[in-house]
Input
Amino acid sequence: MSKPDWSPEIYSRFRGLRLRPALDLLTRVPALPKGDVIDLGCGNGAVGAALAKRFSGHRLIGLDASPAMLAAAAATGAYKRCLSADVATWEPAKPVALIFSNAMLHWLSGHEVLLPRLASFVAPGGTLAVQMPRQFGAPSHRFLRDFAAEMFPDRFDFTGWQPPVNSAVEYHRLLAPLGQADVWETDYVHRLEPDKDAHPVRRFTESTAMRPFLEPLSAPELAEFTNRYDAALAAAYPTEPDGAVLFPFRRVFFTVTVS
Output
């Protein structure tokens, strides 16, 4: 049975908060040589307009595995082409000027092989630019693993689990031999508006980090799981006097300009 597709509408609920890291990454991309600009894991095309404006002399191509997200990206009009592709195996027909990946590569393992492979597709003087969440030890993400393994051990086993995203220092060591590496982390503090039906942090995670936990559950199981998650989130992320919630969120960034 195929997995449910991503929902552009649900993902867009926090469009501004999700877009800001992409724009922060974009400011650190240097001038490019000739070649295509690849929005790798373009999703619903949220960063397409900014990429097209910044690199107007380049052909912008969006790549994603989600049909719904690709349709939304194509509808923005920012891309010359939107292509369905498995990022783990994709490779361009010729070297590209920029591979830009915002909040996507944490879904793939083996970064010690994947990142040098992606950098090898970049033309000399071009850049690989990546942003990924590094939130996996925070309550918002840790509760998901802990509760799922405890409540549904027949479907969730995190024995030997390792975070899918490494430290900034580890990425610098990996990328420095490939070219000019720039690696940094940012802790954002997201102000989430009140939600009468769910804790605001659950609303933020349900379109991304929660997805693998929700798919195997029946409706009654899902209700039990989300109720427990909401209660734990309320203790970890209490409401402010105005009813909003402050949600710290860590992200790691890097660019490597290929020699």
In short: DSSP finds ten helices and seven strands in the chain. The radius of gyration is 19 Å. The longest strand covers residues 179-192. The mean pLDDT is 93.
